[in-house]
Write a structure and sequence with these properties.
Elements: H1 5-8, H2 10-13, E1 20-35, H3 41-58, E2 78-84, H4 86-90, E3 99-107, H5 113-126, E4 136-151, H6 157-170, E5 180-184, E6 197-203
Antiparallel strand pairs: 1-3, 1-4, 2-3, 2-5, 4-6, 5-6
Helix pairs in contact: 3-5
Protein name: GyrI-like small molecule binding domain-containing protein
Pfam families: GyrI-like
């Protein structure tokens, strides 16, 4: 049976639209960092290379290579860790050109450095892309976190973040870092802006 993250990991990817506490384990990712407006073409190209690598792993058995422990699964959604430059933090309004980000796609646990290297090899063989040199394969662990599902425009996220901050304060917790994580459950290219689903997450202590 195919592993579906929407069914088997609902606590991480389909939270309620109000803040909840969750423990996020170690996870493996293909990731790439950058700075600037996410509406720029460069950002889209970075998303594309992450998906190319992720689908290279997913389709490996059809390329004659089956990693140890491989199982059928649905490719995980795009995620992003967001921050601002010092200039951006001091501004009274959000300047998207001052955003600093790392975008990433989670990989199943069977993906090792060897499997990652094989994915890079397959993508390069199909079509060389200079962005590949900027992609890394790493493990991350959020640990204790507060998250919620934000429904609607990305520009309306501040309201949800305020709910989360209130919940964190009421729970006698503290935000570990001003950086936050977003998980894009909806495909923004195909979904009405009012129905976009985005998981928002703060690491806390």
């Amino acid at each position: 049976m195919k592993f579906e993250w929407k069914k088997h990991e609902k606590d991480l990817y389909l939270p309620k639209d109000n803040p909840t506490l969750v423990s996020v384990p170690k996870q493996k990712f293909f990731m790439i960092s950058g700075k600037g407006n996410p509406n720029d073409e460069e950002f889209s190209e970075k998303i594309g290379i992450l998906y190319s690598l992720s689908y290279a792993v997913r389709m490996m058995p059809k390329q004659g290579y089956t990693p140890e422990g491989y199982f059928e699964y649905t490719v995980y959604p795009l995620e992003g860790v967001w921050d601002l430059t010092e200039k951006g933090r001091s501004s009274a309004t959000l300047d998207k050109n001052e955003l600093v980000y790392t975008i990433m796609i989670r990989q199943p646990d069977f993906v090792t450095q060897e499997v990652s290297d094989k994915a890079f090899e397959l993508v390069k063989k199909k079509k060389s892309n200079p962005l590949l040199d900027s992609v890394t394969f790493k493990t991350m662990e959020d640990g204790l976190a507060v998250q919620m599902m934000h429904i609607g425009s990305y520009d309306d996220e501040p309201g949800s973040f305020e709910q989360m901050k209130h919940f964190i304060k009421e729970s006698n917790l503290e935000i570990k870092t001003l950086r936050h994580r977003e998980i894009y459950i909806s495909d923004a290219r195909k979904t009405d802006i009012s129905k976009l689903k985005t998981v928002l997450r703060y690491m806390v202590l």
